[in-house]
């Protein structure tokens, strides 16, 4: 048995994550329950316990016969993610959690309550263990890709966070999850099917899902143009965030290596098509790196590229670069940041500098890199 305060890690296992309720739509859940010898409506009861009450303890599911509880929970609510460590900062309004997956892999998520609106709690989720995009300024990118996560493993990060928020474990008292952003570990559109299934679990009405507004879900990508077009055809209203980081191909090839496959223009064209299809304004994420991509002329070039594709379709989020171990790069000077923003605004571009929540616990953008120590 571990001593108090000692981490208890599960042994690594191989293979796919076990089937979970959150992997299945409503019809598939009822079919799964029928295959287990129970009446289909038990799936609806199980869904309400999980998606509305955030329960996984069979003893608390008193509306299900005791003889059926353990079997249903064991088959459809297997443990997929286990908390290893919580780190709180920002006066308790931000919490980063290190999770161990069923096979011994690790991922991190970040839960943030915004004090200006205490009713807003955002969870930044991971969609892959590690990342294969190899962006040199990102700690996750330098870690490499371990594997894709299942839809249920993604959903479990939010359900577990909802459980913590409801118990008042964030400063400000009990609350509920209102926003989900796919800006944790991994490239979401490189794990397309699982991410799309997780999105549907987030937005499906309770008890089919968590009942989060589509407009409160953001899917980030480094610019996988065909997958952006595919997402545009899903009849969803989620926000697309394009991690651009440079407006010129020469520099972006270095900062975002997938640019050697889909160039700046191709990524922006796909983002514009997403806006045309969905009506949802696209966010352009741009990490400001001192003396690398923060030149005023690059802001002008970015402004030109965006406005030549129209007006009002995009919002730019400059992000002061967050430090990562061993990186030779650092954030832009404040006056350089202000000049970059002003240049964009002269082009009529809407701009908001990203709040760097969780920087001191390595929980801000680009800092997530799992280690159990």
Automatic annotation (TrEMBL):
Location of the Radical SAM core domain: 117-360
EC number of this enzyme: 2.1.1.192
Manner of cofactor binding, per the entry note: Binds 1 [4Fe-4S] cluster. The cluster is coordinated with 3 cysteines and an exchangeable S-adenosyl-L-methionine.
Any one GO biological process: rRNA base methylation
Active site per UniProt: 108 (proton acceptor), 365 (s-methylcysteine intermediate)
Binding site residues for [4Fe-4S] cluster: 131, 135, 138
Gene3D superfamilies assigned: 1.10.150.530, Aldolase class I
Keyword rRNA processing: yes
Principal subcellular localisation of the protein: cytoplasm
Entry GO CC: cytoplasm
GO terms of molecular function: 4 iron, 4 sulfur cluster binding; metal ion binding; rRNA (adenine(2503)-C2-)-methyltransferase activity; rRNA binding; tRNA (adenine(37)-C2)-methyltransferase activity; tRNA binding
Further information: Reaction proceeds by a ping-pong mechanism involving intermediate methylation of a conserved cysteine residue.
UniProt similarity note: Belongs to the radical SAM superfamily. RlmN family.
Name under which the protein is recorded: Probable dual-specificity RNA methyltransferase RlmN
Organism from which the protein derives: Phytoactinopolyspora halophila
Name of the coding gene: rlmN
């Amino acid at each position: 048995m571990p001593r108090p305060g000692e981490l208890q890690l599960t042994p690594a296992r191989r293979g796919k994550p076990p089937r979970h309720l959150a992997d299945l739509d409503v019809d598939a859940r009822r079919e799964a329950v029928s295959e287990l010898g129970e009446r289909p409506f038990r799936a609806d009861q199980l869904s309400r316990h999980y998606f509305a009450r955030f329960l996984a303890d069979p003893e608390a599911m008193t509306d299900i016969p005791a003889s059926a509880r353990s079997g249903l929970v064991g088959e459809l609510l297997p443990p997929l993610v286990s908390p290893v460590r919580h780190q709180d900062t920002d006066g308790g309004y931000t919490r980063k959690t290190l999770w161990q997956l069923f096979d011994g892999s690790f991922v991190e998520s970040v839960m943030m309550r915004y004090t200006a609106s205490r009713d807003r709690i955002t969870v930044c989720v991971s969609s892959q263990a590690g990342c294969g995009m190899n962006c040199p300024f990102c700690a996750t990118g330098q870690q490499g890709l371990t594997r894709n996560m299942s839809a249920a493993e993604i959903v479990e990060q939010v359900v577990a966070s909802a459980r913590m928020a409801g118990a008042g474990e964030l400063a400000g008292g009990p609350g509920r999850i209102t926003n989900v952003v796919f800006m944790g570990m991994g490239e979401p559109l490189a794990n397309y099917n699982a991410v799309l299934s997780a999105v549907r679990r987030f937005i499906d009405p309770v008890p089919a899902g968590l009942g989060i507004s589509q407009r409160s879900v953001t899917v980030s990508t480094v610019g996988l143009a065909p997958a952006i077009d595919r997402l545009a055809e899903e009849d969803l209203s989620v926000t697309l965030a394009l991690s651009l980081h440079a407006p010129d191909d020469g520099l972006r090839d270095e900062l975002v290596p997938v640019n050697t496959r889909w160039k700046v223009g191709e990524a922006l064209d796909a983002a514009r098509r997403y806006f045309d299809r969905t009506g949802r304004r696209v966010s352009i994420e741009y990490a400001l790196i001192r003396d690398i991509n923060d030149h005023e002329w690059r802001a002008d070039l970015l402004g030109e590229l965006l406005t030549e594709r129209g007006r009002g379709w995009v919002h730019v989020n400059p992000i002061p670069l967050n430090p990562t171990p061993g990186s030779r790069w650092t954030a832009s000077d404040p006056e350089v940041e202000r000049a970059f923003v002003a240049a964009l605004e002269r082009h009529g571009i809407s701009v908001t500098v990203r709040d760097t929540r969780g920087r001191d616990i390595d929980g801000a953008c680009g800092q997530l890199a799992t280690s159990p120590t």
